[in-house]
Design goal:
By secondary structure, the chain is of the alpha/beta class. 35% of the residues lie in helices and 16% in strands. The strands form three sheets. Strands 7-6-5-8-9-11-10 form a seven-stranded mixed sheet, with helices on both faces. Helix 1 (8-16) links the parallel strand 1 and strand 2 (29-30). The longest helix has 17 residues, at 37-53. One of its GO terms (cellular component) is cytoplasm. This is Piso0_005330 protein. It holds the Pfam family Methyltransf_16.
Length: 341
């Protein structure tokens, strides 16, 4: 297999997603395109911004990048040395994993990568938090990035449709639809972000502002919603599900104990006005996936399918970086009308 070409656009998006430099400045990639003088100047401009949020990452990148430019005997842009010798960068050390960072995700899907702001979603999050009580919604997980790219690759038409994101967390999927699909592909009638956590919903409001979006936009809404609380005949009933055409969710099946409540809520949406539920899941544990499948059969019988699966998401054509160790990602379709599966 030949080397993968590393374009300037790819590098900029890797930098903003905080991809470890060792993962792309290596012999697996043809780094030639990013060693030109013009590329160095452009990359320096990006690092100037990145160091304001994460000087240690800027330091790690500049160490490898400067060494690579020197090894290839390319003309060196002096600004790279100046950036590396900057006091904040040179003296920086790794911050605790709980410290927030500002991450920017490319959400153009299968379309050619760009560095344009309107093709990305910016989120302040804690990307290095693995998992702890109450922290799963504080970072963006792989299936959310994958589902955002999948939907923005026009795999389904959302024009003038109402969409609800269930268990939104950082809100990447809804944000990707609001910022890219709604503005660049076709207008979406409404996008509703839901989560049980008030703290996360308040954070999504701040994230909207980071992306030049606003709650004053009639196409955007935020609602608190707990799984298992939407069935009017159940003693735990709190509210009816929103009237939407499509329900989307990503990385929401990690806890087997919540599968029944999740399926109950999906069923309530489908029994109301929702045509199709689209759930993306990273298969980290086969027993958890088996539990999910068992609940799908119990609640929906045969009215669900694995519409798409990627056994090696790192090789996806969807232009979203996923590390080589990322487990299989599946996209499930659930609908009362089997013709939609």
């Amino acid at each position: 297999m030949g080397k993968k070409e590393l374009s300037y656009e790819c590098v900029v998006n890797f930098l903003w997603q905080r991809v470890p430099p060792r993962d792309f400045l290596n012999d697996d990639y043809d780094c030639g395109p990013i060693l030109t003088y013009d590329s160095q100047i452009g990359i320096a401009d990006e690092i100037e911004e990145i160091k304001k949020h994460n000087p240690y990452y800027a330091k790690l990148f500049l160490q490898k990048y400067i060494k690579l430019v020197e090894q290839r005997n390319s003309e060196m842009a002096e600004v790279l040395y100046f950036l590396y010798c900057n006091g904040d960068v040179l003296s920086s050390s790794e911050e605790p994993s709980s410290k927030p960072d500002v991450i920017r995700y490319l959400v153009r899907g299968a379309n050619k990568p760009t560095t344009r702001e309107q093709d990305t979603v910016v989120i302040e999050e804690t990307p290095r938090v693995i998992s702890a009580l109450g922290t799963t919604g504080m970072r963006t997980w792989e299936a959310a990035l994958y589902l955002s790219a999948y939907l923005n690759s026009r795999n389904i038409s959302l024009e003038q449709q109402r969409v609800c994101e269930l268990g939104a967390g950082t809100g990447l999927v809804g944000l990707a639809l609001a910022k890219y699909y709604h503005r660049r592909i076709a207008p979406v009638r409404e996008i509703i972000f839901t989560d049980i956590s008030i703290d996360l919903l308040e954070k999504i409001q701040k994230t909207l502002a980071l992306n030049n979006l606003s709650m004053t936009d009639p196409s955007i809404a935020i609602r608190q919603l707990a799984w298992g609380s939407t069935n009017v005949s159940d003693r735990h009933f709190e509210q009816h599900p929103p009237d939407v055409d499509y329900l989307v969710a990503a990385d929401v099946i990690y806890d087997s104990d919540m599968h029944a409540k999740l399926c109950s809520t999906i069923k309530d949406f489908l029994s109301n006005s929702t045509k199709l539920a689209i759930v993306a899941a990273t298969i980290r544990n086969e027993k958890t996936a088996d539990s999910w499948h068992a609940e799908l059969r119990r609640w929906f019988h045969t009215n669900w399918s694995i519409k798409h699966r990627s056994t090696d998401p790192s090789l996806s054509h969807l232009n979203c970086y996923l590390k080589a160790s990322t487990p299989e990602i599946r996209i499930y379709y659930i609908a009362l009308d089997s013709g939609l599966l």
